[in-house]
Amino acid sequence: MAAVLEELPEDPQKDPPNVAESQSGLKPIQRLTSDDRLARITPSTLARTEFMYYSRYVRDFVRSDYNFAAAKMAVARNGKLRAIENEFRVADAWLSKTVAAISRRHQRVMPVKAEKIELEIKHALSGTLVRLLVQYDRLFIGTMRCQMALTVSARERQSILDAAEARINQIPFLCIPDADQFASDGTHVPGSGIES
Q1: What is the span of the domain harbouring residue 135?
Q2: Is 5 part of any domain?
Q3: 115 falls within a domain
Q4: Whose CB among 57, 114, 129, 172 lies 3.0–4.6 Å from 52's, allowing a Cys bridge?
Q5: pLDDT over 50 (residue 18)
């Protein structure tokens, strides 16, 4: 007669083992999320704003990149700060000029529904980033209304929005490297270890 081994059912009260801990014996690394980083920063300005947005791009940017960029900009110094400020000037000039050009074209007026979210502004540059996102939404709505009036083609509209997104996406990209990787004029010098 063969013996049959029966597995005992697992105790539902017992916590399941942590997979990362059980395989290596090490505790998992606890990383700060961008929300946690932003919460720990001592603000130079402290404001909350109810931000109205219209486009998917702005919604996704606020969800994934805004707090990261806001936290990094609040602690940026020397060359890194100069690089970010320069990029803001370039992006703001381009968006302002493009929004003005689109507003001069014939548009079909149509209602556009907005969503809202509350944002924390702990540094002046965070407010500037919000301003760029507002300009993007103006461009988004303006090009949509122009497309409905047949004064902008679908391809032209997509090209304009892609260029605007690329300009704004430069901001969080510049926030990634450490401050010591920027020369005093704001030039990025990867792996240099320069103290600017």
Answers
A1: 43-178
A2: no
A3: yes
A4: 114
A5: no
Q: How many structural domains comprise the chain?
A: 1
Residue 19 has pLDDT above 60, yes or no: no
In a domain, 184, yes or no: no
Q: Within a domain: residue 192?
A: no
What is the rounded CA–CA span in Å between residue 178 and residue 163?
26
Q: Residues 112-122: pLDDT tens digits?
A: 899 999 888 87
Q: What whole-number distance in Å separates Cα of residue 43 and Cα of residue 125? A: 12
